[in-house]
Amino acid sequence: MQTKLLRVLETREFVPVGSNDPVSVDVRLVSATNRDLSQAVKDKAFREDLFFRIKGVTLRIPPLRERREDIPLLIEHFLKIFSEQHGKAIDGMTPAARDLLTNYHWPGNVRELRNIVESMIVLTDRKTLDVEDIPEEIRQQTPEVKTTAIVPLTSLAGKSLQELEKEHIRNTLQLTKGNREQAATILGIAPRTLYRKLKEYDLA
Question: Can you give the residue range of the structural domain that contains 81?
Fold first, then answer.
């Protein structure tokens, strides 16, 4: 098949099934793979001439597990879409559930996250999604959550609401690697409000 594809790309002609006459084509080829083709060439599993023929402009899209700071923002996006689509009054997701999804390895990338969030919304009978709403197979495969977002109740005692808000904003900014617009979306506030609070709490 690689040989046939290379021939079509080189000659810009192919013979349709059931015909003897070649057809000329003028196309632009866009290809995608989740394999390392450079290594496949070294392993003789992919033709080198075809590899260099299709290797024009190359864009690498990191898998979701390599950009975990995007996961909370994607969760909020899908929550809004599927809550409206399925007529559910979902007001958000608990920090524990969000952290568990953030730590999952997502072999199916964004498509898998999208399907999981939709499934949680369809099957839940509560307003705020929690860990129990996450499919069991996801919970079983997810490593222990390493996060400072879940704080024992005893450590909250004696702190003012301003102190708690300041800590929550700081943790969210760490999660988004300093991206203020993403942090504002996750926090559910306008970017202008976040900027004002950053100045107020001296977090700029």
Answer: 64-141
Can you point out the beta strands (E) in the chain? 13-14, 23-24, 92-93, 128-129
CA atoms within 13 A on the CB side of 157: 3
d(CA 36, CA 58): 12
Per-residue pLDDT of the chain (204 residues; tens, 9 = 90+): 999 999 999 999 999 999 999 999 998 899 999 888 999 999 999 999 999 999 988 888 888 988 888 899 999 999 999 999 999 999 999 988 998 998 899 999 999 999 999 999 999 999 999 999 999 989 888 765 444 444 444 455 667 788 888 888 888 888 887 888 888 878 878 888 888 889 888 887
The rounded distance, in Å, linking the Cα atoms of 201 and 193 is 12
Whether 47 and 88 map to the same domain: the answer is no
Please indicate, yes or no, whether residues 23 and 83 belong to a single structural domain of this protein.
Answer: no
One domain for residues 182 and 164: yes
Residue 181 lies in a domain: yes
Helix (H) or strand (E) holding 171: helix 161-175
